[in-house]
Design brief:
The chain is an alpha+beta fold and about 210 residues long. It has helices at about 1-20, 125-135, 160-165, 170-205, and strands at about 40-45, 50-60, 65-75, 80-90, 95-100, 105-110, 110-115, 120-125, 140-145, 150-155. It has four helices and ten strands; from the N terminus they run H-E-E-E-E-E-E-E-E-H-E-E-H-H. It is globular and about 65 Å long.
């Protein structure tokens, strides 16, 4: 049982990382017309387990992760449902992540693993939690950074029910989505480099 449990844990973390990366969405206001937004479902198969991940990923304009929300279902050799929230590293681990639906009571999510660039908190995914998501308007996810400051992030629940109950995106859709993200981030980086050079040129002229 121990190996089966650890395998389920490993697969759930992989599901959040791999499927989440494929479906990255940029939250910057200027990107809203270019980058697909909101909730979507991505499914894949690893070993003898089918993995479906309903997710909503928010990143900054430079592609850096702000918050990732994943409702993961494993079926097959391992059967498990988990709810995960991914935030940047540099968090106070003991504080966990606060999950609030609309103005309801805040639930604490314990961190299960931290990587150099992100930390993942997880709780079992229940029918009650899914039902609350379907009825709610927004999630507020609050992590505490290393300066002991809360970082609340609001995630709209509009479109959640359709993504959860509907079909997953096709692989071609995921690849197209990821390409749009990469193109947007590359353009942002080019614009930043151009502005930086202009500022440097102005500074040289002033001297």
């Amino acid at each position: 049982m121990t190996s089966l449990s650890s395998n389920a844990y490993r697969l759930s973390v992989i599901a959040a990382g791999v499927a989440g990366f494929l479906g990255v969405g940029v939250a910057a206001a200027s990107a809203q017309q270019q980058i697909p937004q909101g909730w979507f479902k991505a499914c894949t198969k690893q070993e003898d387990v089918d993995i479906c991940n309903v997710q909503n990923i928010t990143t900054a304009g430079n592609g850096q992760l702000i918050t990732g929300v994943s409702l993961i279902e494993l079926k097959g050799k391992v059967n498990r449902k988990v709810f995960q929230v991914t935030v940047p590293s540099g968090r106070l681990i003991g504080a966990g992540i606060g999950l609030q639906i609309d103005t309801g009571k805040t639930q604490k999510l314990e961190y299960v693993v931290c990587f150099p660039d992100r930390c993942v908190a997880e709780v079992p995914l229940t029918d009650q939690l899914v039902g609350a998501f379907k009825k709610g308007q927004a999630l507020t996810l609050t992590s505490i950074n290393f300066q002991n400051q809360p970082n609340p992030i609001k995630v709209a629940l509009q479109g959640f029910s359709g993504a959860y109950d509907g079909p997953p995106l096709q692989q071609s859709d995921l690849e197209d989505r990821q390409k749009k993200v990469q193109d947007f981030v590359a353009k942002n980086n080019q614009d930043f480099a151009k502005k930086l050079k202009e500022e440097q040129d102005k500074a040289k002229t002033a001297n």
